[in-house]
Amino acid sequence: MPMYSEELLDEIAAKNDIVDVISSYVSLKKRGGTYFGLCPFHNEKTPSFSVTPSKQMFYCFGCGAGGSVYTFLQKQENMTFPEAVAFLAEKAGVELPSEEMSPEQKRQRDRKARLFEIQKEAATYFYRLLRSDHGKGAYAYFKGRMLSDETMQKFGLGYSDKRSDDLYRYLKQKGYEDDLLRDSGLVYINEKSGGKDKFFNRAMFPIIDHQNRVIAFGGRVMGEGEPKYLNSPETPIFDKSRTLYGLHLARKTRADAFILCEGYMDVIALHQAGFDNAVASLGTAFTPGHASMIARYTKNVYLSFDSDGAGTNAKLRAIPILKDAGITCRIIHMEPYKDPDELIKACGPEEYQKRIDKAENSFLFSISVLEQDYHMDDPTEKTAFFTAVAERILGFSDELERTNYMEAVAERYGMVKDDLRSMVLRLAAKEVSAGNVTHKKTAYAPEEKRTKNAPKRTEDTSAETQRLLLTWLADEPGLYPGIKNYISPEDFEEGILQTVAGYLFDQFEQDAYNPSQIVNRFVDDEEQQKVAAIFHTTIGEVESAEDKTKALREIVIRVKRDAFSRLRARTPDSDPDLIRRTIEEKKILKELETVDFYGVGGQ
């Protein structure tokens, strides 16, 4: 159950429209009464993420994520439910009563707060150690990388001692328990040997989130040792796939774009050189989560990955992810230098700025990489290359964008523009005749895509029939007055279906239908997704009003018949009311065979 009253949660949600909140993370387009966009919780090319203002809910038809505005912030920002409520309350100017927090929620909040404390303590300790005799080697390393004392201070750089239990001993003296230290990701706890540090004899890079809180660390080994760079494991406060190094500083930039790099030193070197808009993923592949974080601050990115083969592949992987997040990106070329740090050291900030000014369009870059797979002096391979390019151009849904890229490609490769256009049109016609081009029809109708691709459901199962009835009522609340004469929450199987039915029927009785409020009653993420699915599943199309009436009647009959079956299974044969109940059941089921719910309290 939620820790706050329904009235308070409704007030906060009403002052934080879910479309407005989600629009700051996801690019949404309206279709009818619903908004659609690319899901921020899984990688996809066709929008299946929906936001319904009338229900104040979101739901992804691809991965099943769904819920209220509170649920979205919990997933997007890795917040607890209380944190999401507090965030939205502050945004709306609503004062929260502190006494409504449950003991368990307070325990979780306090534990998370202590994990933040531990990271801060460790950062302070590493920072001081760097400036002691123990940290001379790491300090010399940073100086050798041409970092100033001011830059080292700005990024909180530090050093972890050679002793493998140095930090563990320090934190134990501060009063932190072993189980909490284990969850911090900073130490290993072994029953026999005790606590051991994850980082020792390393130059330390604190990882700070967008709220200026230390949440993890990266460490570069001093001397010999593997791995060369080591990051904290994921913890309750650290999600690698949604964390960008340097974001706490870059988010304050006045530049209209971010520079996306690969490593700590690239970000630090760029900031020191005056490029305060640099960020980097943390030694992991660039993810939709990273793109979502960037999209909160800018819609433009310069990719400044390494110039080697691995860096090129990383760029090619990042480009579509950024595009899916609504971000335009350009490629900074650094040859013959490997990375921004090396280029700036060799040529200075002015040269790097020139590279930014000459940054290449990401699509044209991908085409230039593709070109390397073909022998362009061979007519057959050259034709194959242009065919591959035409296929990629066909991927642009906007006609003006397609035209612009056809002109750019034709100019770059000395091709007649009309020839390239003809090739694109032939490919489009070929795909249409083969039945492959369905994007325009289904791009903002994910329910159709889901019906086509999802495994067939066992529609004859009792639970599925009950769920379908709840979905139908949620879609058409006006049917409730007629259906309540035959169906009650007790007719649903015990568990989540019966609970949702109880909440839903109560709301109908009070003329206060509010799906997001029902979702908020469930704390478990999996349960929230199941409840959200009830309110977002699309009822299959029927050919006529008569067929629709018949389909609903059959569902009600099956739910009622299954409820009678479960009741009979619990009733002993010796029950004196068994015969009477059986006669009543038959009478009700017989009556249901002729009921028209669209004519009895229906719409």
Can you offer a commentary on this structure?
It contains 28 helices and 17 strands. By secondary structure, the chain is of the alpha+beta class. It has five domains: 6-100, Zinc finger, CHC2-typedomain (DNA Primase, Chain A), CATH 3.90.580; 102-238, Alpha-Beta Complex (DNA primase DNAg catalytic core, N-terminal domain), CATH 3.90.980.10; 241-370, Dna Topoisomerase Vi A Subunit, Chain: A, domain 2; 373-437, no CATH class; 462-592, DNAb Helicase, Chain A (Orthogonal Bundle). The strands form four sheets. A six-stranded mixed beta sheet has the order 12-14-13-15-16-17, sandwiched between helices. The protein has a five-stranded antiparallel beta sheet with strand order 1-2-3-4-5, with helices on both faces. It has a four-stranded antiparallel beta sheet with strand order 6-9-10-11, sandwiched between helices. Strand 9 (202-208) and strand 10 form a beta hairpin. Helix 14 crosses helix 15. It is flat.
Structural key phrases:
flat, DNA Primase, Chain A, 28 helices, alpha+beta, about 600 residues, 5-stranded antiparallel beta sheet, DNA primase DNAg catalytic core, N-terminal domain, 6-stranded mixed beta sheet, 5 domains, Dna Topoisomerase Vi A Subunit, Chain: A, domain 2
